[in-house]
Amino acid sequence: MKKIPMRTCAVSGEKLQKKELIRVVRDKEGNVSVDPTGKANGRGVYLKGDIEIIEKAKKSKILNRKLEVEIPDSIYDELKEVVSKWKEKII
Asked: Order of strands, edge to edge, in the sheet holding 43-48?
């Protein structure tokens, strides 16, 4: 049996399969980006693929604390875009 990688959502605290989460990564230079592959180098934080979770992350500034850098609004917009594309694939 193949092992399924599990990760924890930074906002909800739920343990989910890695493929159900979106990774936000900060590289050594302090640049923040959305990592759809989950393989980019740097410090990563996982968020559940849900618009409400992204809104809570923005409101609570949890990504700022976890990644120790100011997160621009464009990252949250990009996260919402990724989630809406996921929802379209499912439906």
From this structure: 32-35, 21-26, 43-48
